Amino acid sequence: MTNSAVSRRDFAEAGADLELVGISKRFPGFTAIDDLDLTIPAGSFFALLGPSGCGKTTTLRLIAGLEEPTAGRILIGGKDVTQTKAFQRPVNTVFQSYALFPHMTILENVAFGLKRRGVKEATRLAHEALQLVELDHVSARRPSQLSGGQQQRVALARAVVNRPALLLLDEPLGALDLKLRRQMQIELKDIQSEVGLTFLHVTHDQEEAMTMADTVAVMNKGQIEQMGAPQELYELPKTAFVATFLGQSNLFTGQVVSSNADSITVDSAGARITVPKDRAARQSGIVTVGVRPEKVSLSSSKPAEVAGTNAVGPGRISDVSFSGVSTQYEVTIADHGPITVFEQNTSISRIHHDGDEVWMTWSVEHSFGLADEGDVEHEASRFVDDTPTTSIATRKRAQLKAELEEG
Fold this sequence. Notes:
Elements: H1 8-11, E1 18-27, E2 30-40, E3 45-49, H2 56-64, E4 71-76, E5 79-80, E6 91-94, H3 106-116, H4 122-132, H5 148-160, E7 166-170, H6 178-195, E8 198-203, H7 206-212, E9 215-220, E10 223-228, H8 230-235, H9 240-245, E11 250-259, E12 263-268, E13 271-276, E14 286-291, E15 297-299, E16 309-322, E17 326-332, E18 339-344, E19 357-363, E20 368-369, H10 389-406
Parallel strand pairs: 3-8, 3-9, 6-7, 7-8
Antiparallel strand pairs: 1-2, 1-4, 4-5, 9-10, 11-12, 11-14, 12-13, 14-20, 15-19, 16-17, 16-19, 17-18
Helix pairs in contact: 3-4, 3-5, 4-5
């Protein structure tokens, strides 16, 4: 989405960089963030991706000033804002709930914050923000007269109109239907490119993060597992968590049985899998290697040995799921977990069926090797148990009693 009426130069100042230094956040009974270091360059679209409970929303609230860190510093544009109140920080947040005033017009909603601060020409600036999201033509309407997508764009205009150095997006598209969500993903990216602000987008939606962000950080148990460009994270995950959370992966664990200048070969329950050395984080001992489902091809007969190709099988198809553009197969192989394969539906006659015996092949260059051993199911807890809440409550009660006695 572009809008020649409101250019970047006319509308917004460049965003500021964000730096988190040694940030930790402990709540009674658990640790949400553990010694987090993170730098987000000015003017970038950055996504913090992770499952529920990983600490991503707590991180956003710390940056916004809605929570205080237990330890560490927060710097925006090089200025330490750790002790700065939320309303004094150059930050605005767009939440999943639009929180628009129902009794005000769209224009009044967008101009509200500016008028409260006594900003001159608040109405003109609000019109500019609405032009940016292409909603100035509905500025006289009430929120109830707009669609969900339009209301979300109004909430974005209300946040951007304040010219924040940093815009925080807390799963803002979660309440929209699939088609509208995908449309808004493109529009948000276009708006960010046009105004040049620093966007920090918190989400659990992998597709959303990869579609919009320049850089994605995958978060797990209060720490960053891996950070990089979306394609880099997808094509070359470093841990089992990233490999299985950011899309799907087929993982094989085994002993490195041979290596040369270019590759290593792993024996996983009799299957020999070769991985290029520049795509393998570990190159000796017991390692976990993997391949994405869409890289794998199925064949009904044992394939001939071909240099540069990995082959695993035979296995038996245990599930077939047709999804239109592709078909997902789940293949069961003795001594291995289920293997997932995605095949494009280029010909209906090529579709395999439940119970068919098949072999799986893929190019060696599509294999990757992980830095960990790949046991996501039984991963040890990163944090030791914190002080029980009962003892914290007892201590707090004693402190209050002492203060009352002193008074």
